[in-house]
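Run log, item B.
One chain of 184 residues. Sequence copied directly from the ordering sheet:
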Amino acid sequence: MRRTLISISVRTSDIDVSGRASNVAFVRWLEDARRALLDEAGTSIGTLMEEGFLPAVLRTEILYRHPVCVEDPLRAEVWIDQLRRARYRIAFQFMVGENIVASGTQDGVLVGLKTLRPGRMPQSVRDGLLPFTERHHRSCAPRSRGLDGTEAVGEIVNRWREPLAEECVRSSGSRIPVLAISSW
């Protein structure tokens, strides 16, 4: 399994009042790492849109282990932890030297531009992502509850239907649900 590695420049704008990197900076860095993975996989946001899809982030979990300060030599490592028919889970870790300072996962789904509903991942996208994938699932039947009692991602996706999409279209004037847009 391949992993994508990127170097990250920690800037003063990434630092909060405590003198350490803000949690918002980590989410932005994760997005940069995801885009680098897509580039390495030969897929881009433009390619996904040509196929009629946009990625939607369903959940992001980050475990902050150690603080990151300005000018720390930060790097990110990202890979696909799970790849299903429509859903995916990206795993990542941020490192300073050999120390892992943060790690986590991000769950997402591909949303059809015309239907505004989750859709099956095009084979060309799947083929590009497979070398970066740790676990490839043939079945995408969700569990009813997660181990911690939370709802499974599949149930959240199943409830995300037209009411949310219509509300977003009315508020933004666009045909793309505002809450579902990601530059994955």
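Observations after the first pass:
- The chain has five helices and six strands.
- The beta strands are 4-9, 53-64, 73-83, 87-96, 99-112, 133-136.
Flagged for discussion on Thursday.
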